[in-house]
Amino acid sequence: MMIRTAALQLHVKPGDTVENFNKAAGCIREAAAKGADLIVLPELPITGYGLTEENYHSLAEAFSGSLITSFQELARELQTVLVVPFAEKYESRLFISAAIIERTGSLLSVYRKSFLWGNEKRIFSSGKKCYKPVETSLGKIGILICADAEFPEPSRLLALQGADLIVVPSVWSLEAESRWDIQLPARALDNTVFVMGVNTVHEGSCGKSKFVRPDGAVLKEAPRDGESLLIEDLDFTIIKNIRKAVPYLQDLPASFYNFPLIENNPEN
């Protein structure tokens, strides 16, 4: 199945939610006009990254709030599947989350970042270490947010459950650029799945959003220092052939692992 996918590499201004939303919505419309079936935003594309806890408490929303509702309406209007990360408020806690929205506008799932990095731990709560692909009209899509992709196990669990594509919305730093270049192809090759890394630019981020084939080859990459609408057609049917040539999943089956696969329920 050929899927036209779009990675929106954006400069997100910390705290400027109105400008950030308008930019994100405009870029989604542009990607949809170019035929994108799946459009993915970077990590925290509306609030921005690196704010204070007080700022995030004032700007974060529930997954049932007006922000995600607006993106649901946009997905329905444009008939595209959207992955929209956001600062989520649940009761008294904050999460770095991502909403997966079907082309009908229905909210399929909310994933919460499970491995927090640095100062994030002082502000946000970790999501459950539960990794389950989301069944969409385009195929099974796994979601990891930034540092989640630095560990091999989450990607492997998604692949073992049938993920065709793992998307990684991120705010990935210049200091860690070499890890971005190594780990995304490694996650793709180790699990023989497509990987789509969607990063921000400026504000200390390294850009270089990219699409990676299941054999680890980088198909397309955005620049380090500029906004970019990166579009690539992904053919999920090649996964089967690549897995014949590189039989990692066959040689190391799911029974090797002893991790509980708990339903990732946003109400918990």
UniProtKB/TrEMBL annotation:
Residues 3-236 form the CN hydrolase domain. Coiled coil: none annotated. The keyword Cytoplasm does not apply. GO terms for molecular function: hydrolase activity, acting on carbon-nitrogen (but not peptide) bonds, in linear amides. SUPFAM superfamilies: Carbon-nitrogen hydrolase. Keywords: Hydrolase. Transmembrane segments: none annotated. It comes from the Bacteria. InterPro entries: Aliph_Amidase/BUP, C-N_Hydrolase, C-N_Hydrolase_sf. This is Nitrilase. It comes from Alkalicoccus saliphilus.
